[in-house]
Amino acid sequence: MAISKQLSVLTLFAHLAVIALGETDRTIESETEFAPDPAIISGSLYLDPWQIEKEFLLTPLALQQWLELDLQSDSSLSPEHRNSLKPVIGEFLASRCPVSIQDEPLPFTLERISFIQPDSLEFMPISPDQTVTAGEAWISVVFSAPQSDHRQALQLMWDLMPQSPDSVVIKVADPEGTRKFELNQLNPALNVRGRFRSDARTPPPLAPSIVDSSPRLVALPWMSVLLLSTAILGGLRLLRERKKNLLKATVIILVASCAIPVRGISIMVPLKDSRNAVTDTEAIEILDPLLRRIYHSFNYTNQERQYEELSLAASGEALTPIFLELQRTLRSRERDGSRVRVHGVEISACTVSNLQERPGFEALCEWQASGRVGHWGHFHDRTNNYNATFAIEPSEETWKITRLELHGRERNPDFLESALPSTE
């Protein structure tokens, strides 16, 4: 039973992670930002309330203005050659184009380096076993830094200007959309502030508390019921005898009258466990913060904090496999260079039924999760629609998700599908 429960909740988290980290089903915006002949050097800032990512997007040939890579347009870049270039490129770019807040430089660390190729609409990663030429490859280098105060403005000093007099395009993405800025040698600085809600860093609320942690009790006035029943039976018998008996009638009236003052003599009778008495509306109120808490856990890079956040949404038996699935999915970002923060979760419908022989309930629910994906200088809004059955059970005086049966997941039809091949 415990293993089955763990696998069920692990399935839950795997499906939630798909939209939370942009691992599959990538889309393009209705107005594509990609040009057939992308600039040889460009940059991006990905801003969210928890983290800042700085991306360099450039060609190996453009890098030779500063690095001696000994490359020509037709030079072969084998998998081994590309791997040998990564530490050299990462070390060089680590100190370039600094970002600061109030003149204090941010401590960026290298996240990932990807070799990519442009196609007709987008960039696509180069397969790990593929050999390409230097003239057809681009390099994406991403550094990250924690967001210390999302209300402050950022200052970017771009010091990678190409030899040509052309300007460099810098894209800045935040929850409100994408902005483009042009920097050049006469104006290499950019001051920008992320656009966030005032409660952007506020954690989701906890699930509603289980007010009735034990079965409800009702007082049964057994003595009053006994006396009243005796009086009724005596009255019926007197009627059947069809003769007046003043003494018996008086006794019956006295017995019935005594039923009122002795109603305080009672026994407590347990009713059905109130934790099963959940309406459809209450199920939405319970499940909504649990789903938001799981998505919220992706905001943290510290594993202890991730584990702590997940423990507020999932039962103890399922917590370890969920945590391991989170780590696996986070590492998978390196495969396609994508990142996303889910900014909207909305449950549209829930139908509740009781669990058998234990407290809790099942809820057949439909919900939507939306976010903004960013990779290789491009940003795409994404919305997925889900249909699933949840098992919600009490744990440590609150509600936890213990099982999920996913019935369907589909992309919002308002978004176009991008035919990007898998690179696994």
Largest sheet: 7 strands, mixed
- Beta-strand content bin: 25-35%
Give the radius of gyration: 33 Å
By CATH reckoning, the class of the largest domain would read Alpha Beta
Order of helices and strands: HEEEHEHEEEEEEEEEEEHHEHHHHEEEEE
β-strand number: 21
Query: Strand order, biggest sheet?
Result: 8-7-10-3-2-12-13
Q: Assign the CATH architecture of the largest domain.
A: Roll
CATH topology category name of the largest domain: Nuclear Transport Factor 2, Chain: A
Total domains: 3
Unreliable stretches: 1-10, 18-36, 414-424
- The chain-level mean pLDDT equals 76
Summarize the amount of helix as a percent range. Answer: 25-40%
User: What is the terminal separation in angstroms?
Assistant: 34 Å
Tertiary shape = elongated
The number of helical elements comes to 9
Structural class designation: alpha+beta
Task: Spell out the blueprint of helices and strands.
Blueprint lengths: L1 H20 L5 E2 L12 E7 L3 E8 L1 H4 L12 E2 L1 H15 L5 E3 L2 E2 L3 E10 L4 E3 L6 E2 L4 E9 L6 E5 L10 E7 L2 E7 L5 E5 L23 E4 L1 H20 L4 H13 L8 E4 L9 H17 L6 H9 L4 H16 L1 H4 L2 E16 L6 E15 L2 E18 L2 E14 L4 E2 L7
Parallel strand pairs: 2-12
Antiparallel strand pairs: 1-21, 2-3, 3-10, 4-9, 5-6, 5-11, 7-8, 7-10, 11-14, 12-13, 15-16, 17-18, 18-19, 19-20
